[in-house]
Amino acid sequence: MSRPVLITGGRLLDPSQELDGPGALLIRDGRIEACGPGIVGPDDAEVVDVDGLVVAPGFIDVHVHFREPGDEHKETIESGARAAVAGGFTTVWTMPNTDPPIDDPAAVGFVRAAGERAGGARVYPVGAASRGLQGEQMTEVGELVAAGAVAVSDDGNPIWHAGLLRRLLEYTQTFGIPVLQHAEDTDLSCGGVMNEGKVATALGLTGAPNAAEAGMVARDCCIAELTGGHLHVCHVSTREAVEQIRRAKERGAHVTAEVTPHHLALTEDAVRGYRTDAKMNPPLRTEEDRESLLDALVDGTIDVIATDHAPHHYEEKEREFDDAPFGVVGLETALGVALIELVESGRLSLGGLVDRLSCAPARIMGLDVGTLRPGARGDIVVFDPAERWTVDASTFVSGSRNTPFVKKELVGRVRATWVDGERRYELPKEASPVREEAPPYVGQGSV
Amino acid sequence: MTAKPTNAGADGLGLGKDLTGLQGLTCEQIEGILDTAEPFKEISERRIKKVPVLRGKTIVNLFLEPSTRTRISFEFAEKRLSADTVNIASAGSSVEKGESLVDTARNLEAMRIDMVVIRHSSAGAAQFLADRIPSNVINAGDGQHEHPTQALLDLLTIRDRLGSIAGRRVCIVGDVRHSRVARSDIWGLMRCGAQVAVCGPKTLIPLGIEELGVTVLSRVEEAIEWAEVLYILRIQLERMVGGFVPSLREYNRFFGVSRARLERAPGDIAILHPGPMNRGVEIDSDVADGPWSLILPQVTNGVAVRMAVLYLLAGGSPERAESAKEAGE
């Protein structure tokens, strides 16, 4: 096995064991061996001094789109997995709406194998909920799980038929996996390319109302309550959906939910000027919705942050707004955006943010990651919570650049990421800020 | 795209390079365009309807959505100002072969053109083009967004009839939801100080329209009682298929503007319509052809307004419009 690694000099931040303070972390054979103050490594350990930086369990993103197979010009599993570690993510769940879709065990195995070869974040495939994502017939859920799928979803489309959703929420209980629902009543959102309201009216664009999401979430929550299955609501964007989820949780239904950094940071006003990099589904909503999402993430109604990383080639976005595809990339800006909206704004502690990015996803999805406890996988992110940097999409590791945060100043930057004890990412030297004082990293290894 | 300097802003009104909508214009700019249109009206009344104002300028009429009235009106305006014009329709063009809008524009640009008049089915298409080429871009209708020259000709027609726009009560009746004309008229009228209302079945009134500053009236009788100008929009057959109105017959019964309804108006009322009309649906024939109607003057004013816009974007100033015109005599 490789040399043990000792990460010293940092601030250990792990809400899963209420740990926040100076200390060191020893990784051996891919697993965390010790964690806390006064830890000393063996003589042969590689010592990485991360003076003043935060050492936290690697982030987990339960909602990304890597475009392989079918649209490798946008993103491959390799480029996506590497973009993930550049954003501090050590585990990602890839949605099955590729071409062809991931709806049989062979396809699941392909994603899994490609993920292992990628040398980035750990890639866990989400299998299709219905064959061909057609919304009619259930996939072989058990076979998909046996091949390595961690959940099922028709994301991109809602599971439209209430009967199918019911059967899925019942059937998946045998395998202990959630159903991830893209909640959209497409009859109501019909043709909508942005939020319905005054901005859409002024721009002459067709709008999708909040009710298209909230109505579906209400129905889905009723079915979750009926069946006892685990319903996970993807990319919540409306205050009304938040209300539905809050009520369902109060009633004891097994419902969890995620929100994207872009819905936490932006409103429909970002679309003005027909900016296709602000076009996604669900759309950016109003300030009232944004506030409600922030509150919901703080109070736990929404459990986790997920990026809905949706790469598209610039040519596909460089066109008429109606014709541009939905979606934005998010892996490499998630920390910086979330840190501004949640921590800088005073809504959440830094530990709270690490929880929503790492511990909470592991907790709600039952994953053996998201913690620095001894014995856990060596999935670690080291980041500078104070560094201000400006987004330059041309430097993205991702195969695509479609971000609404171009040229925005973000706070908080990932410096290095380990997966299974192996360093998979290190911020390039030229991207580091120039500092007058001595370099913060001394020791045998460096970050 | 910095192949050549852009044609920005020598017009004296500060319109800039393009006219993509009325939302961003001031009252002074709008009135300035209308003032510039006044001297151009007369050219169309001459025996020889041509002046050399745009001689040597190349204008592309890029009509990627069917249009008869607007395209011909622009073409007359361009020809009467002596510009060289080329018409492109989507059928049979490279666009039909899948060429992107930005590539189409760059290829036109490479042939050294001066102006593009664009009609497109997607909102924002005119702005998209304007941001990417140095030529002047004039929006001749982009999806449900704006149709600024239509609103300008409407404003000119209202001003001709009522003497002023400020303080006038104008109600737009019909399919406001899907109408770029309604949006441009709302911006133009509000900028110029008119009071604006919209009226129609709620299925055809877009959400959030009150936040633009207009009043929503739910019955056409209320509209007629309130308004000095009734702007009637075309109700398209496909709206029935889309479930926005149950039938055209019912639309006519509850929202159609008829002589009987107009005769109950408390004062004078002027009728405008952007055309083409569906007689017997949104407007009855005796209204369209009656004393209230300004529909044909609108069409006549369309040519003058478009001449004014072409002239201003090409660098002309309002004060010199009269003399520029006389130079052609």
Describe the structure.
The complex is a heterodimer of chains A (447) and B (329). Chain A is built from 13 helices and 18 strands. Chain A has 447 residues and is α/β, with parallel strands linked by helices. Chain A folds into 2 domains: 5-55 and 376-431, Urease, subunit C, domain 1 (Roll), CATH 2.30.40; 58-365, TIM Barrel. In chain A, β1 (5-14) and β2 (19-28) form a beta hairpin. The relative contact order of chain A is 0.17. Chain B has 2 domains: 27-147 and 302-326, Rossmann fold; 148-298, 3-Layer(aba) Sandwich (Rossmann fold). Chain B is built from 13 helices and 9 strands. Chain B has helices at residues 27-41, 69-80, 101-110, 125-130, 148-162, 180-191, 220-226, 237-241, 248-255, 259-262, 285-288, 295-313, 321-326; strands at residues 58-63, 84-89, 115-120, 136-142, 169-173, 195-199, 215-217, 229-232, 270-272. Chain B has a 5-stranded parallel beta sheet with strand order 7-6-5-8-9. The longest helix of chain B is centred in the C-terminal third of the chain and has 19 residues, at 295-313. The interface between A and B is medium-sized, with 22 and 25 residues.
Report a brief summary of the structure:
The complex is a heterodimer of chains A (about 450) and B (about 325). Chain A is of the alpha/beta class and about 450 residues long. Chain A is built from 13 helices and 18 strands.
CATH topology of the largest domain in chain B: Rossmann fold
Largest sheet of chain B: 5 strands, parallel
Number of strands of chain A: 18
Portion of residues in helices of chain B?
A: 25-40%
Strand content of chain A: 15-25%
Briefly note the CATH topology name of the largest domain in chain A.
TIM Barrel
> How would you name the CATH homologous superfamily of the largest domain in chain A?
Metal-dependent hydrolases
Low-confidence stretches of chain A: 434-447
Please state the overall shape of chain A, judged from the principal axes of the Cα atoms: globular
Structural class by helix and strand composition of chain B: alpha/beta
CATH class of the largest domain in chain A: Alpha Beta
Q: Which CATH architecture of the largest domain in chain B would you pick? A: 3-Layer(aba) Sandwich
